[in-house]
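Hi V.,

You were right to ask for the full record rather than a summary. Here it is.
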Amino acid sequence: MTIEESQNEMKAIFAAFENSDDKWKFLLKIAKEHEGMSAGLKEDKFIIKGCAAKMFLVPEFKDGILHFHMDTEGGESTPLLSRGLGALALKIYNKQKPSDILAAKPEFFQEIGLQIGLTPTRANGFASLLKQIYMYAKVYSLIQK
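Predicted structure:
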């Protein structure tokens, strides 16, 4: 699935929510469903800076595709909202070409109303996660050339 297709799918899901509580329930649901990653990958160098929760984002570049492994310190038990935000980002950017990630517009998350209701700390952490995804895409796009 392309980034645009993933974004359109998420737009449809978020548009169907009857109230703002539904979006938080969705984020908690995908947090619990997210596979996470092995403890061995949770190294300090992969911590997302500026995130209220301890979140890890590990890139893996294979065959021109950027794969991300993401988890929070407590795994599937806590903090679920941060983990859900990370899982949502991976639904868009995981298993994509670095050039496609760089061409995608992160404003998509504002378009679905995600910033509304996030605490400043969570909004900061989510922005840091997106910045890190784009930074990895930039680095691997340069390596690919």
